[in-house]
Amino acid sequence: MKNILVTGGLGFIGSNFIRLLLTNGEFDQVINYDKQTYAGNPENLQDLEDRRSYRLIQADICDGNSVLKALEGFEVDAIVNFAAESHVDRSIDGPEPFVQTNVVGTLRLLEATKSYLSKVAGAKRKSFRFLHVSTDEVYGSLKPEDPAFRETTPYAPNSPYSASKASADHLVRAYHHTFGLPVLTTNCSNNYGPYQFPEKLIPLMILNACEGKSLPIYGNGSNIRDWLYVEDHCTGILSVLQKGRVGETYCIGGASEKTNMEVIDTLCAILDQHHPEGAPHDKLKTFVTDRPGHDHRYAIDFSKIQNELSWRPSYSFEKGIEQTVEWYLSHQEWCRNITSGKYQRQRLGI
Questions:
Q1: pTM of the complete model
Q2: Which pLDDT belongs to residue 90?
């Protein structure tokens, strides 16, 4: 593989993945195909945009002609699809954009890939890969005593977001079995780390605490998530891309089940030490009405990717969350540009 197309590469996980690719230098060209919605922030990769091996295309995955043009123009050897609407609360308020991007967009990508591969032959055709990045939320909710999700867990999505991702997963599978597309799918647990948009739990709590704002906690804070440091997720995706078996699904988890309350208490303790202004920060905790249909617990069994590809997370939650807090505290300008909307005004030329 020489040329890789990454969709949604200005988002949180996508930008961290592109950083990994550009750091290890295994690809001649990394093409970032991003619509630049509210969650696609050019500042996430601003320090790398002058690299000769990096190209940014502002376009929508729902535009199949643009996708095909990019595939042909750069003679792409692999696609990694991060492009998605991903915030559950937003999907509850307005499901349609999630269906459009996550379902229709994935369909357009698959169709463009099928058309592209119909004109590619030999070793390039044989080595091509389409890797679809999904979520553990497609599997529904676990009870405290239930075993962790694995690749064979039946789908049971409970939110418009997870339903749209489940639909996309099924399309990817169908295009492999019907048309022979060389696909791979990964389902990950909750990510955290640098460059995460502050509508998600961990960056929201960090920024609110630093500004003396309330720390809103859904319900009683007992909902459990398996937390995966974004760098670990990215190395897992790269392992699947390079060594995974075509047509297979791989679950990527962090081996770090925590309640929301445990996460917030940990953040407050770290901030008390590194940002003592306003301490103790746990006084800002506020309980709010629970999210409709809030899944109680997610957990990932990553034994398949560990046994087949020798991958496992290298970051403990304690190490990863400490580095995450330090990153946000040392990137105040990035945070201000996000919270003020400046990055969007710059994108729109306002």
A1: 0.95
A2: 92
Instruction: Name the nearest CA neighbour of 41 among 342, 288, 350, 312.
Output: 342
Strand order in the sheet with 78-81: 54-58, 29-34, 3-7, 78-81, 129-135, 183-188, 249-252
* pLDDT of 236 over the 60 cut: yes
Q: What pLDDT score does 340 carry?
A: 79
User: Is pLDDT above 70 for 342?
Assistant: no
pLDDT at 349: 54
Q: Of 3.40.50.720, 3.40.50.2300, 3.30.565.10, 1.10.10.10, which CATH number belongs to 3-193+227-258+294-317?
A: 3.40.50.720
Catalytic residue among 60, 77, 85, 136: 136
- CA 96 to CA 98: how far, in whole Å? 5
Catalytic residue among 137, 226, 231, 301: 137
For the sheet with 224-229, list strands across it.
Answer: 190-192, 224-229, 257-259
What angle, 0 to 180 degrees and rounded to 10, lies between the N-to-C axes of helices 260-274 and 317-330?
Answer: 50
161 counts as catalytic: yes
Q: How confident is the model at residue 142 (pLDDT cuts 50, 70, 90)?
A: very high
Q: Is there a contact between 162 and 87 (Cβ–Cβ < 8 Å)? A: no
- Selected catalytic residue, list 54, 161, 250, 298: 161
137 has catalytic annotation: yes
Residue 149: what residue type?
F
User: Could you write out the DSSP letters of every residue in 220-234?
Assistant: TS--EEEEEEHHHHH
> In whole angstroms, what is the distance from residue 40 CA to residue 15 CA?
9
* 134, β-bridge pairs: 187
Q: Is the pLDDT of residue 348 over 70?
A: no
